[in-house]
User: Fold this.
Amino acid sequence: MMSDISKSPLYQIARPESIAIFGASNNFSSMGTSVLNAILTDGYEGRIFPVHPKEKRVLNIGAYSRAGDLPEVPDLAIIVLPTKIVAETLRACGEKGIRRAIIVTAGFSEVGGEGPARQEEIKAIARKYNIRFTGPNCIGVVNSQMKFNATFLSSTCRPGFIGMASQSGSFITQMFDYLEARFGQGFSTGFSLGNEADIDMADCIRYLGACPDTRAIALYIESIRRGREFIEAAREVSLTKPIVAFYVGGSETGKRACLSHTGALAGPDRLYDGVFKQSGIIRARSVEEMFDFCYALGSCPLPKGKRALIQTHSGGPGAAADACGRSGIELPALSSATLEKLRAYVPHTASVKNPVDLTFTKNPLDYFKAIPEILLEDEGADSLLVYFLATEAMVNRALESLGVPEAEIDAQVKTIIEDQCTSVAALMASHGKPMLGFSFLNRQNPFIAGLQDNGVPVLASPERAARALGALVECSRLREKLARSKRPASV
Amino acid sequence: MMSDISKSPLYQIARPESIAIFGASNNFSSMGTSVLNAILTDGYEGRIFPVHPKEKRVLNIGAYSRAGDLPEVPDLAIIVLPTKIVAETLRACGEKGIRRAIIVTAGFSEVGGEGPARQEEIKAIARKYNIRFTGPNCIGVVNSQMKFNATFLSSTCRPGFIGMASQSGSFITQMFDYLEARFGQGFSTGFSLGNEADIDMADCIRYLGACPDTRAIALYIESIRRGREFIEAAREVSLTKPIVAFYVGGSETGKRACLSHTGALAGPDRLYDGVFKQSGIIRARSVEEMFDFCYALGSCPLPKGKRALIQTHSGGPGAAADACGRSGIELPALSSATLEKLRAYVPHTASVKNPVDLTFTKNPLDYFKAIPEILLEDEGADSLLVYFLATEAMVNRALESLGVPEAEIDAQVKTIIEDQCTSVAALMASHGKPMLGFSFLNRQNPFIAGLQDNGVPVLASPERAARALGALVECSRLREKLARSKRPASV
Assistant:
């Protein structure tokens, strides 16, 4: 494990104190301008030096006509220039003493003709000046914790705990709205790798493994270039931090698409399956699954085993149970102690099997505290899945029926929702068992947003929650297996 | 095929001109009150007669003390009373001449003890008076086209085209927010069936098959009670209207959960697979898939074959291609005519293979019209998948860079978005090929809402779009097979 994150070549790329940007101008339709615009909009607090041959000011910041003129040596150069002037710019950066770069520009090994030779040229320049870089043909980096967003799209994401490395172009930017809408957060740090001429996936795994803001690592993989280094890095990191990979080159059609996209050759699906398993990596079968898994893994303690209880509110306990069955989760019967304790809370129509199907509870608020607490205490279970179907309207109606004056209802609803959400979160913390919520409601519902913002993961369907719980079980299993094995990695 | 929908026993249940409701009061915490509240809130325009032994007015509507006192014979009785007085109430309805009922009350065959005998009793009463009913132990019905919502939860859904029959209690109500948030619509008609003591899934299939507002049918199945009738109904209807089933009793754990839920025994997974195939039914593996499939099937013409083109915007063409590979979709090469026509629109960095990876287009608006039009014209392809990544901010920036005055930008953005969305919709209509969009953005993005509201289905990920396209291909195949076979259905 990397003991000191500042030793990573990615440190100044993800956390620069100052940056030079090449290619931003006052022309809003240029890509470089979009990058600088995102950096400014998202609130980066370091020093920014636009470099432009003609403009004196770029987006209202003083500009310099060439790297040699910069008043200091910035931590990082971001290069978004026409292909043919990238090499000379990188050389000028090297002369100035800059040691990190993000090369966004495309037109290298991913295209034919002179592309591969151009890529060799920039690699040679980087070696000469000891420059480490991501790209070319990439989209930069985003660090929501530092409000540093050097991609072309500004983001309104709140700080998050999922770290990401992606081989697919603008994938990380395309996930900004998705992650915020789904989980109320952005990437702790997200790297777009492009052609990986220098820094690659293995470097990202080590960096994110050491990054204190990152609790789970997502990898979007089209192909692995350095197999041995990848496996070694993943085996080390996955001992303490979960890694989830989405591999898109598996099918024949996917393979052909990747080949044309970043110029890397994808391997057979089964080979990658084996690589992931021996590296302690959990494999996701879709983008949604990758983030569901990371979100659950970053939110929950790992379960001791695969026995789960399910708490539902009528409607689809079968779906949840069936999904568990398909995800290798066992549903034990409730203990007699649990049955005894539940008696006080559930109506005669409720099924006190597993899933516990509550139909209507006597007091709807028991659903958020008394009942999950009893279920978490059941010694025969390792985890709890809870279906959340609560709306403001329900709480409103309950307060009305209690005779609460209309003028006070809104404020009371808010307080009640906040209380319920924090009490659910406290349960998970105090019992040390994973507790996964699921709901067809989204964050526009204040209960769902409240639960998530208090640290209770709520996923979008019973199937997705069951699969995420399967990933937690798998993570425990892989980690134990890795810990037992002392043999060195083999490719 | 049922030629006249008014002959269905469900006609007056889904489209009553007048209703009597038993069990609503002025106590807001009672279930019956919630049902009446939903009926009123959603704007039902028929006549409503609450029946209550003591109250003179219920939720501000004049009430009657018993069925015999009603001033007319309503089309439908909704019964939400304690279990022990359901039978006598149903008898009183029969005496009055009421011929349709929804029995929401639980405590019948799904529980032990006297439950099964109570169910036999209400069946006998219904037979005597020629009453057809749904339930007991169900959640009623919703008809978004008529603003008739007799479930316990009010809905703000707009009229939709997905018809639904569910064996799982409150499932339909739990989908209101989901469908609205995901697709901007509610159920054309949704039935909750409960114990199916009288009307069952086969009746719903025939009703929804004949319902002019319904373009695709979703079934949430825990068990099929009348196998022959189910298959016959499905075989007839699926010749002209797609049916998608989600079966939750498949795994052992799912089976046990269903048994305790509505008292029906689920069968082995493979048996159901066979039943669905011979009935022309497309099987979904999750709730999300069921609605994705219905939404796509209700939006698109069926494809002639399984060859698709994919249009992407950088970022994950591999994921889309891979997902197609896994869903049995073929990705042919572009024709030379298509390549020739595309030349004018794409930058040199774009890959003009399939997926067509546009990275940046010269004019971003070509993405919505010129380019998909060229791809739809390709004679080697049967369908088109399009990745949508467009934001207001992008259009804003484009207008700024064209020098549009700031005061006019908002209005112009709105017009441009509307224009783009209608032009995409027009393409699908004029080419007669299915065109499925996908995006990680949701309806909070005005492009996604605009596309969907103009009839272009946009799904939540490349995998989900590819699987939905797979369902379209499967639907064509099953329909042809059914049409060829003239043999009668066999169980």
About this structure: Residues 259-265 of chain B have pLDDT under 50 and may be disordered. Chain B touches chain A through 82 residues (CB under 8 Å). Residues 5-297 of chain B form a domain with the Rossmann fold fold (CATH 3.40.50.261).
